[in-house]
């Protein structure tokens, strides 16, 4: 009979108890009032030989206690697990998971910053097509037919021209928007034209077949070069910082007279001289021939115009040394902005 108790103990110890239901099944199986295995053995105590009864009783009592201890322990483990699960689901101090959102392209950010600065000075935004005709892109801007000035900008043609004029092309600069606005509106005119332009350039770390410009145009009575200098200096201070150094360098554009290019000083201790001058824009007083082409009286009105690239300032600002990354849409690059 002692063997029977021993076998039952081993069976009891091998039971797996992982749920509340299993706790109850276990209890009924071993300690159930009617037919629990241990309960049944107690009933058989009279069948045991009198001299063995004492040992049998002790053995059976020990098994009963071990079984009850196992029950208590299992209930305990389950209760603790439940409490833990509960606190986990209601931990309001955990930080939330952020949904993935896109970011604004660095060129768009730079363009918007440029536009915002000029808006403070009363400029509003104008728009024009990227597919232009020769007249708006060149002729009205005082490029003579067959003049080498047209070669200054390596034009991508949509429809070839015959003999230098006519033809449809991808605009090589945002200056044709000047023509469209002046044909449309009477002075005073004060507009900004941000947009994409195209040139047939050899692609490298510093040039690409498309890039972005922001054009500015102001036409009114009595506009002077001094006004232009003031505005561009104010812009440079707002964009590059109060202590920016800038210079106007005489230059040539068919559509402005006089013309200038503007450089800013870029400090770089790795360079001999501690930095270098970087060109950021072209500008000048609107040529009288341009005003005539759009039926504005050059005796009454004067104006200034400027055009700046967006890529160069964006590269300076973000420390980017290869222009091509702007157009590759590599998510690892874009994610950083
Ligand atoms: N359109 C010129 C360029 O692309 C820049 C410019 C604009 C110069 C307006 C003068 C006035 O280089």
Which CATH architecture of the largest domain?
A: 2-Layer Sandwich
Helix content: 40-55%
Domain unit count: 2
- The averaged pLDDT comes out at 92
Shape: rod-shaped
Give structural notes.
By secondary structure, this protein is α+β, with helices and mostly antiparallel strands. The protein folds into 2 domains: 2-88; 106-334, BirA Bifunctional Protein, domain 2 (2-Layer Sandwich). It has a 7-stranded mixed sheet with strand order 1-5-6-10-9-8-7, sandwiched between helices. Strands 2-4-3 form a 3-stranded antiparallel sheet. Helix content is 41%, strand content 22%. The chain is rod-shaped, with a radius of gyration of 43 Å. It has helices at 2-14, 20-31, 37-43, 50-89, 106-119, 134-137, 176-184, 225-240, 288-293, 311-318, 325-328, 331-334, and strands spanning 124-125, 131-133, 156-159, 168-170, 189-198, 210-220, 246-253, 256-267, 275-286, 302-309. A hairpin with an 8-residue loop joins strand 3 and strand 4. The two termini are 81 Å apart. The longest helix is centred in the N-terminal third of the chain and has 40 residues, at 50-89.
Topology of this protein?
Blueprint: H1 2-14, H2 20-31, H3 37-43, H4 50-89, H5 106-119, E1 124-125, E2 131-133, H6 134-137, E3 156-159, E4 168-170, H7 176-184, E5 189-198, E6 210-220, H8 225-240, E7 246-253, E8 256-267, E9 275-286, H9 288-293, E10 302-309, H10 311-318, H11 325-328, H12 331-334
Parallel strand pairs: 1-5
Antiparallel strand pairs: 2-4, 3-4, 5-6, 6-10, 7-8, 8-9, 9-10
Helix pairs in contact: 1-4, 2-4
Phenylalanine binds at residues 173, 175, 215, 253, 256, 282-284, 305-307.
């Amino acid at each position: 009979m002692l063997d029977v108790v021993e076998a039952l103990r081993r069976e009891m110890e091998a039971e797996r108890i992982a749920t509340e239901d299993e706790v109850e099944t276990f209890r009924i199986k071993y300690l159930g009032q009617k037919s629990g295995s241990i309960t049944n053995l107690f009933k058989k105590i009279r069948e045991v030989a009198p001299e063995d009864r004492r040992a049998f009783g002790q053995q059976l009592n020990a098994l009963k206690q071990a079984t009850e201890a196992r029950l208590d322990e299992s209930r305990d483990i389950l209760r603790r697990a439940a409490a833990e699960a509960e606190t986990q689901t209601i931990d309001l101090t955990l930080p939330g998971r952020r949904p993935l959102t896109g970011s604004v392209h660095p060129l768009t950010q730079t363009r918007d910053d440029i536009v915002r600065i000029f808006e403070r000075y009363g400029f509003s935004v104008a728009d024009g097509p990227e597919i232009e005709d020769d007249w708006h892109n060149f002729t009205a801007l005082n490029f003579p037919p067959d003049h080498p000035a047209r070669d200054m900008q390596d034009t991508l043609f949509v429809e070839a021209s015959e003999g230098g004029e006519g033809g449809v092309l991808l605009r090589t600069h945002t200056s044709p928007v000047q023509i469209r606005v002046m044909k449309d509106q009477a002075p005073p005119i004060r507009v900004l034209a941000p947009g994409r332009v195209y040139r047939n350039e050899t692609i490298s770390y510093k040039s690409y077949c498309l890039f972005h410009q922001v054009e500015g145009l102001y036409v009114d009575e009595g506009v002077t070069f001094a006004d232009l200098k003031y505005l561009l200096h104010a812009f440079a201070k707002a964009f590059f910082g109060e202590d920016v150094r800038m210079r106007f360098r005489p230059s040539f554009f068919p559509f402005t007279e006089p013309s200038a290019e503007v450089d800013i000083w870029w400090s770089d201790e790795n360079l001999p001289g501690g930095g270098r001058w970087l060109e950021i824009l072209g500008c000048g007083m609107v040529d009288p021939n341009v005003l005539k082409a759009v039926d504005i009286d050059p005796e009454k009105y004067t104006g200034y115009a400027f055009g700046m690239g967006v890529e160069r300032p964006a590269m300076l600002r973000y420390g980017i040394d290869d222009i091509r990354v702007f157009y590759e849409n590599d998510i690892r690059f874009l994610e950083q902005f």
